[in-house]
Amino acid sequence: MNVFSKLTIKNLKQNKIRTFITIIGVILSTAMFTAVTTILSSIQTYLKESVIEQEGSWQMAYGTLTSNEVQTVIEKEQIQTAATVQIQGYAKRNEEPFQKSYFCFAGFSKEAYEILNPKLIGGRFPQQEGEIAIPYEMLLYDDNAQEYNIGQTTSFSIGKRIDGERLLGQLDYYSKTEELIDTTKQTFTIVGIYESLGAETFNTVGYTMITIPKQNSQMPQDLYLTVNQPKNIFSFAHTIALEKEPIFHTILLRYQGVVDNSRFYHVIEGLAFLIFILITGGSVILIYNAFSISVSERTKQFGLLTSIGATKRQLHKMIRIEATIVGMIGIPLGILSGIIGIGITLKFIGNGLVQLVGTSKHGMGLSISWISILTSVLLSSFTIFISAWIPAIRSGKISPMEVIRQTKDIRIPKKMVKTSKGLYNLFGFKWVLSLKNYRRSKKKYKSIIISLVLSMVLFISASSFVSYLNNSSSFVLQDAISEGDIYFNSYNEEISYSRLKECLNKILQDSIVEDGKIIQRAILDVDVPFELLEDSEQAIQEPTTTIFLYIMENQDFEAFMQSQNLDPKPYLTANQNRGVLFDQKKYIKNGRYQQRKILNSHTNLALSFTDTFAKQELPKLIQFQAIENIHTTQDILLSDVVSTLPLGVVGSDSLIILLPKVQFERFLKPYKFSEYSIHTRLVFQAKDHIKAYEEIQRYLLENGIINGKYGNLYNIAQETQGDRSTLMAVRVLSYGFIILITLIAIVNVFHTISTNISLRKREFAMLCSVGMTSKDLKQVTRYECLFCIGRSILYGIPLSILMDYLIYHAISIGVEIKMLLPILPTLIAIIGITFIIFFTMWYSVGKLNKENTIDVLKNENI
Amino acid sequence: MEILKVENITKIYNPNENEVKALNGVSFSVERGEFVAIIGSSGSGKSTLLHIIGGVDRPTSGKVYVDGRDVYKQSEEELAIFRRRQVGLIYQFFNLIPVLNVWENITLPVLMDGRKVNEEWLNELLDILKLQNRKSHLPNQLSGGQQQRVSIGRALMNGPAVVLADEPTGNLDSKNSQEIISLLKYSNRKYNQTLIVITHDESIALQADRVLAIEDGKIIRDERIRK
Question: What is the span of the domain harbouring residue B84?
Answer without folding.
Answer: 2-224
